[in-house]
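INTERNAL AUDIT FORM
Audit reference: QA-55
Scope: verify that the stored structure record matches its stored sequence.
Auditor: D.O.
Record contents follow.
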Amino acid sequence: MNNDKIEVENIDIKENHKIIMEILPNLCGILNKHEIDYYLIGAIPAILLINGKLSRYHDDIDILINENDIDKLKLVLSNKDYILEDKTHDKNKIWQEQKNKPKGGHEWEATYTKYKFKIGFFLFKREIDNSITTRTYFTKDNVFAVEENYSTIETTKLRYPEKFETFNNFKFRTCCFELLYNVKNFLTRPKDICDKSIIEPHINKNIAFELEEEYKQKKRIVVV
């Protein structure tokens, strides 16, 4: 396959990158202006900060957002070329017994109507001590529930630095490379293997191990 052109939904890779780089300054600008508590996550911010440009096709943009800011998000994205949809009760978000975890997926989803491009939102709770607990909604045995993954304030500072990064004159916060590496390390899709190869030279393996060990120990389920 020609790496310069990967056809997905009739959009080639150069057009895909153009769309993403149009959306990011617009969206991050809106979120920053209204002081929404969020982190731009996934491979896109990491690859931009490491390589200075995107290298593969991306079918969406991923954002981790404070669940308390969802109502504010609805307000600031209204009439701004975005359609926002609640996906917490999506029928595909179910408990996976074999993997002992819920099937992942966006909790909320925005569509940038100009290109019908998706922005996926994952949720977290900001604890009293400023630490972060990620929250994943799912259904198990017809009961609506949420899986929570708690981080101490110390590891929250490692996972989600408060410092804003700058790329092409737009600012955003993002997760550390070690957290993204841990996610990619358990995935086998070609795009994840590609992302891992880019990220790996830029991580601290000791930090990656510490974060993964805490993740395994702190997980809990809360029935809604």
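Auditor finding: record pair retrieved intact. The longest helix spans residues 13-33.
Action required: none
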